[in-house]
Amino acid sequence: MVTNSLITPLLFWLNASKVKRAIVESAPQNNLVNNSLKLSGRQILRIRQLTILVMLCIAYIYHLHISQEAPLAQTGTIALSLLSQTFPAILLGIYWRRANKYGAFVGIVAGVLTIIIGMLVPALAPQLDAQTYLQVSPVTLDLVESENIAFVLFLSFAINLLLLAIVSILTDNKVSNPYASSALSNLHSDIKFSDLLTLTDQILPHAAAQTFRDQVVFVGIKQDDIAPSNVLNKAENLLASHMGKASTRILLSAIANAEPISKQKLTELVNEAGKDFQFNFEVLQASITHLPLGVSVVDTNLKLVAWNAIYEDIFDYPKGYLQVGRPILDILKFNANRGLLGRQQAPDDIHHKINKRMQSMLIGKSYKTVRPQIHNKVVEITGNALPAGGYITCYADITEYIHIQNELEAAKIHLEKRVEQRTYELRLAKNDAEQANISKTKFLAATSHDLMQPLNAAGIFASMLREKLSRNKNTSLVLSNEAELADNLVNSLDNAESLLAMLVDITKLENNLIKPNLTSFALDQLLSSLVIEFSVLAAQKNLKLRYIRTSVWLETDRRLTSRIIQNLLSNAIKYTASGKVIIGVRRRKNAMCELVVADTGSGIAKEDQQAIFNEFQRIDTHSPHQGLGLGLTIVDKISQLLGFRVDLHSTVGQGSVFSIGLPQSNKRVMVSPSRSLELFDDKPPILGSKRILVLENDSAVATALVTLLQTWGGIVKSATSKQGALKLIDKSNFVPNLIIADYHLNDGDNGIDVALSIQDNLNVRVNTIVSSADRSESLQAMAYENNMQYLPKPIKQAALKRLLQRIANQ
Question: 299: how many CB neighbours lie within 10 A of its CB?
């Protein structure tokens, strides 16, 4: 710090006189002077080494003679007091314009001496003899003894300020403040106002010159008057902002009426102006060179004055072709001959483009265009007028940008095609899925119909067997056991029929083809029959199935509710190895109740409790009792259809509790529970020799139905098609009192049309029952429209008997 801030500047200051003489001396002498002003690295190193040695010596002396007696805090106070003596010069230099360097120098020296005498010497007093100190400073002895540091500091400031003011006033005429007046007004105070206005009009832009004229004319200065100093200062500042201070002084000196300036002064001004021009040119060239764009600048005569290397590279100009002063018209024609103004264009079009560019530059019109070049380049050209005249054009090589843009457009087109293709594929996939779903529905409907036929026949035969065994079960223990087996057989067939019907129903659920049939019924009747049915399965696994009876009535779809309970009981028994299964009902608020099925099975983990309601989802893959994984899915879908809430609480190893929220009903219509029909107890046959025609294409169902109706006392004949039925009637003169017709017959016939044809042939109305596994509403509506009864398959013996009795009573 001492070397850089004190010693080195001092060396340069000692050679200041040589620097002043170097301006007017010859070149060799200038070089000599310039060399004398420079310090080599070795010299600076020696200066620093010497400075460090001196500082170490001073520190050692301080350590031996001063630091032992004077504390560090006292030394710091003295140092800050010495530094504070610069404050008066700083403050007055800013706020008092008459303050000068002589006053500041004298004031600082006086203040420093006061601090030395008042603070530094007393600090060194233990090292001095008291008598010696008295002889050196007898005046300040009392002050030293008082050790009043604040008083000494105040006194030093007072002496500093007083001497600064006195010396500045006495030397005011000898030293001028460079900030107080303009050097130009001192040199050229006799410039005519008219000459000054002419100069500003020629140099300054029109708007700036007009503003300056309006301001000075408003003051009231006449054309032949000498320009006042304030006006001259303002003009100097305006001109210097456009052409530099040195050039401004040269021009104003040339138009002044005073004595011409000396040759030495003029040389200095010219040299300074040249340096300003060279500096400005280098700044401009450096700015253009480091721009990321190609740049070319022309003057008011449309001649090239500046450019950069990127501009040369973009247009691939020959080396040395671009020169200062070359007309831009020649450059445009040169580019046109190389095809850079457009490919495969007529000469007139090229000439028109060149004239358009020249016209834009002449009138200072901005333009922007994108033009393809040779070698697959694309250049964006932007032109703008310069404020002081001339034109600047920027050239950006946007080849890569255009390439990216083309790639993005191609990618966009490709993406749009892919989206269209994917959309088309999705549409096809959707149509295929819908078609597959329709085909699945049709397949299941057809399959269920085909399966219903043998189940229907088996059910009828089993019901007949149960009735016969039931009549004689009291006569023999063996017959009693056989009657119980027959009951189990009928129940099993009923369950198979129910599950098959449920498979069709769930398919309809997925296609929104099932509408709930809301009725009011006693929940106890439904649960009692289901508990009896599943008690056999529970007993086979040594499980206890406990049912807590209830008096709750529901208002919902009985058949779908039964499906829910069947699936819950089936799962509870299937996945419970030991223990018990409990089913019951709990009443809730708002006319609701909760059906609960609880078991002591293996339980379901919390993370699997939501997944088990998905289709084909099975959690316990090691269980020997595996289904399709549709049981709880059916429960969930039917519950959603009926608006039930399904809850599950389960703990692994302890069991599971399923609960279903059900709506209660206030309507209570008692229905006698169904019981086994005893058609031949002590009553006469219900058909009483009625003639019955059975239209059925399945031989097993036809045989079972004919046998059942004959058992009930009917005279029964069967046919499989329309042609067979009409032939049977004509040949045997058989006129039926009742027709029981399957909807699907041979030869593409349907039971409704065949029954109507028989009635037309006999010219008499015959009671008709249409029986089919197709439970669609459309088929039922078709039967009722033709005054026929509908009975779904598989035919239940009790249902058929009730329907026959109703027909007989009509």
Answer: 17
Cβ-based neighbours of 196, under 8 Å, separated by 6 or more: 227, 231, 232, 235, 255
Q: What is the pLDDT of residue 179?
A: 43
- Which residues, 6+ apart, have CB-to-CB distance to 326 below 8 Å? 303, 304
Integer Cα distance of 54 and 60 in angstroms? 10
8 Å CB contact between 107 and 82? no
Q: What is the DSSP letter of 485?
A: H
* Number of other residues whose CB lies within 10 A of the CB of residue 42: 8
The more confidently predicted of residues 196 and 649 is 649
* Best mean pLDDT range from 14-18, 463-467, 505-509, 752-756: 752-756
Map 628-659 to HEC letters: CCCHHHHHHHHHHHHCCEEEEEEECCCEEEEE
Residue entry with tokens 């109706």: 709
SS3 per-residue string spanning 213-275: HHHHHHHCCCCCCECCHHHHHHHHHHHHHHHCHHHHHHHHHHHCCCCCCCHHHHHHHHHHHHH
The H-or-E segment that residue 210 falls in is helix 206-219
Of 30-44, 411-425, 759-773, least confident by mean pLDDT is 30-44
In angstroms, the first-to-last Cα distance of the chain is 130
Q: What pTM does this model have?
A: 0.36
**Does residue 588 contact residue 594 with C-beta atoms inside 8 Å?**
yes
pLDDT tens digits, 200-230: 887 777 788 888 887 776 666 777 777 777 7
SS3 721: coil
Mean pLDDT of the chain: 77
| 609, 648 contact by CB (below 8 A) | yes
Give the pLDDT band (50/70/90) at residue 354: confident
